[in-house]
Amino acid sequence: MKKLFFIFFSVFLISLSTIYAWDDCPYGITNSSCTFPGNCGKYIDTNNNGICDHSEPAPSGGAPSDMPLISGGAPMSEEIIDKYVPTPSSELKNYTIKQVCEEYNINQDCLIDALKLKINEVITSENTLTSDTQITEEIIDKYIDISGSELKRYTIKQICEMYDIKSEDLKRNLGISVDDDTTFDTIKKTYGISPSESKEAVLKCLVDDGKIVLNNNEVQNSADKNNQLKETLINELNESTTLNEIKEVYGLSPTDLKEAILNCMIDEGIVGINGTNISTNSNDLNTSESIIDKIIKFLFTELNLRNLFKF
Fold first, then answer.
1. What confidence score (pLDDT) does residue 182 get?
2. What is the DSSP code (8-state) at residue 272?
3. What is the DSSP string of 61-102?
4. In 7, 46, 79, 149, which residue has its Cα 20 to 30 A from 133's Cα atom?
5. Pair 285, 79: CB distance under 8 Å
6. For the chain, what is the largest distance between any 2 Cα atoms, rounded to a whole number of angstroms?
7. How far apart are CA 201 and CA 208, in angstroms?
8. Which strand (E) or helix (H) includes residue 111?
9. Listing from the earlier edge strand, what are the strands of the sheet with 68-71?
10. For 227-263, what is each residue's pLDDT tens digit?
11. 169-182: buried (b, 16+ CB within 10 Å) or exposed (e) per residue?
12. Backbone angles phi, psi at 96, to 5 degrees
């Protein structure tokens, strides 16, 4: 049995040396010209660049690193963001910038810059979409007291029944055409409409139906106060600022906050982008550890060897 094992293991090592070879295509293809999926069954791409290793020189950095890779070229889906920033939103909002940086090992200045970019995106969007007086989260929460995390579990039909509004009116305010049994979580993932935006759409339905009459002075005062906070906060973001403060003042969704964190992880090389794969489906996420690496680790475990060959 031992002889059989060593014969098998020798053949395995020889095959590995062939698999991991660079710039040695048996068909003479060179100059990195053999791209995915390759022209034969020997295609291998250990550095995830879409080129067969046998047709290109070995990378100067040696073997591929263990850096996780995400797909590039398209907006990141919520599934991808949650994969790399798994802290639940209900917990994350209570973190300070300093705590977030310690949790995810990112630079504080990088995170502050990433958050400011997100804030500016929201401000630009507000200025582009409407010239009306802004309805702040303070006003929205006063009349629509369901939390964002709770709202995601409800369907359009259930919310319309809860607030006695018409589903057609709500969908018109949301700007979507979906079935009444669609959940707000699905709406968020499909259309990028945050729970706060959905709650605002519900409030507008109530105002349009005359069920709620907003006090113009109250709305304007809340908007003025919010604008003052915006100007102050963006200039005073520091390690003690909580993500919830940013969320409340600027209306950033938990996904926006998480994406800012992930962008820092990418900028600092903690997470890499696989530029050869455009899809943002979670099934397309890659790690640079290949199946062969896993087989080697498995075979080099003494217990597994003994169990496999019974000696």
1. 95
2. E
3. T-S----EEEE-SSPPPHHHHHHHS-S-HHHHTT-BHHHHHH
4. 149
5. no
6. 89
7. 11
8. helix 108-129
9. 272-274, 68-71, 286-287
10. 677 677 777 888 999 998 888 777 778 888 999 999 9
11. bbbebbeeebeeeb
12. -85, 165
C-alpha–C-alpha distance, residues 271 and 212, integer Å: 48
Tell which residue, 162, 151, 147, has the closest CA to residue 188. 151
Instruction: Look up residue 198 and give its two tokens.
Output: 């959905």
Backbone angles phi, psi at 272, to 5 degrees: -105, 165
Query: For 132-184, what is each residue's pLDDT tens digit?
Result: 556 777 888 889 989 888 998 999 999 999 999 999 999 999 999 999 999 99
Tokens, residue 283: 């099934």
* Secondary structure string (H, E, C) spanning 185-203: HHHHHHHCCCHHHHHHHHH
Report residue 86 as tokens.
């798994």
Preceding peptide of 37 cis, ω within 30°: yes
The Cα 256–Cα 125 span in angstroms is 14
- Dist. CA 218–CA 75, nearest whole Å: 38
Residues 148/185, Cβ–Cβ less than 8 Å: no
Q: What share of the chain is helix, strand, coil (3-state, %, to 5)?
A: 55, 5, 40
Q: For residues 271 and 264, what is the distance between their CA atoms, to the nearest angstrom?
A: 9
3-state secondary structure of 227: helix
What does the alpha-carbon distance between residue 34 and residue 101 come to, in Å, rounded to a whole number? 41
- Checking DSSP bridges between strand 286-287 and strand 68-71, what pairing results, if any? antiparallel
Closest CA to 148 of 230, 259, 254, 243: 254
CB 69 within 8 A of CB 285: yes
* 210's tokens: 């005359």
